[in-house]
Amino acid sequence: MTSPLSKRALLKMTGWAALAATAALVGCGKKEEAAPAAASAASEAAPAASVAAAEPLKVAFAYVGPVGDAGWTYAHDQARLALEKEFGDKIKTSFVEKVPEGPEAERVIRDLVGQGNKLVFGTTFGYMEPMLKVAADTPDVKFEHATGYKSAPNMRTYDSRTYEGAYMAGVIAGSVSKSGTLGVVGSIPIPEVIRNINAFTLGAQSINPKIKTKVVWVNSWFDPPKETEGAQSLLNQGADVLFQNTDSPAVLQTAEKAGKYAFGWDSDMSKFGPKAHLASSIINWAPYYIKATKDALEGTWSTGGVWWGVKEGAIDIVSISDAVPAEAKAKVDTIKAGLKDGSFAVFKGPIVGQDGKEVLAKDVVADDKFLGGINFYVKGVEGKVPSGK
Known about the structure:
CATH topology of the largest domain: Rossmann fold
Strand content: 15-25%
Number of domains: 2
CATH class of the largest domain: Alpha Beta
Largest sheet: 6 strands, parallel
Number of helices: 12
Helix content: 40-55%
Mean pLDDT: 89
Structural class: alpha/beta
Order of helices and strands: HHEHEHEHEEHEHEHEHEEHEEHEEH
Strand order of the largest sheet: 2-1-3-4-5-11
Low-confidence stretches: 1-52
CATH architecture of the largest domain: 3-Layer(aba) Sandwich
Shape: globular
Number of strands: 14
Distance between the termini: 12 Å
C-alpha cells in the first residue's frame, strides 16, 4: 500500500473515431449544396462538438480488498465518493474490488483502460509493475499508483504518511499498557509496514522507554481469520495493547473479546470493539484524489511522487477513548500540531536499531529516502524482520 514513500477500480468510455466518421459522412452529403446550406450544416455540427467536449472524465479505481465498512479499501472508496461529490457530472467513477496483486492486476487495469477510463488509480503496492506495463502501452491514459516508488511519464506515485498516525497511537498505547508489552499484527514486510511498527514503538517509548513490541506477520493485507489468529497469539504472549497494519477490524474484535485494548487502522473502527478501542489512525485520501482529478481535468497533471500526512489533512487520529489519560491526549494534540507546522518529526535522532547500533544521529531528521528504505526494527521490537516481497 508504499512509496516515499503503503499499500492497494472501474469501467467504460466511447472513442472519438465514431464522431469523426459521422462528421465525415455528413460532410460528404453536403458537398454539392449551396454555401448557405453548408453554413447551416456547420452551425448544426457545433452543438455536437460541444456535447463531445462535455464528456465526463472517466476515473477508475482498482482495490486490493473488499470495500466493506472499514479499513484501507473502505477509506479509498470513501474518497472516491468525495470525488464524485466534488466534481459532479464532470467525472464518472467506477471501481473493481478484491483485485489480487500480480498478473490478475494487469488484466484488470488493461480492462479498465479498454473501457475508456483516462485516469486510473491502483491502490496497493503490488500493482506497481503491472501498472507500469499498462502505462507504457497506453500513453494517453494517466495512472496513479498508491505507495509505490516507480513512476513513468504517465504514471505518478502517491502515499500517506501512515507512520505519523502510528506514532500517535504508540503514545496512547504506552500510556495505557500495564504489562509493558505491545503486539502488532503486520501484513507484508515492506518498508511501509516496518516503518509503522517502528513509529508505533517509538511513540510508546516516549511514554515508557522500557516498552517492548512483539510482531506477528500474516503476509496478507486482508485475511480476517489470520488476523484473528495473529492477535490471539500476541495476547497469549502477554501483550495487553494491540496494533495492526491489516485491513479488517479482526484485531480489534479479538481484543474486545479478551478484555484488552487495540486500535482501528485506516478508518474509524470504534464500532467494532467499543470497549477495546483506544483510537483509530485514519487516512483521508480525498484531498489527494481531488487534486489529482483536478490536475487531469485542467491539463496540469504531471508525473512524480506525492507523500502527504497530517500537514495536508491526509492523516489523523480520531475517536480517542475515555480510557486514555488526559496527559496522553494532550501530548497527542501537541504532536499533531507539531506535525502540521513542521516543528515535530517522528523519526528524529538519536534512534537506535534493534542491534544497538545508531541508525540516526542526535537531532538528525530522517529524509524521505531514509524513510522509504527502512528495513530494520528499532530497539525494543522483538524478533527478526522477514524478507519482504
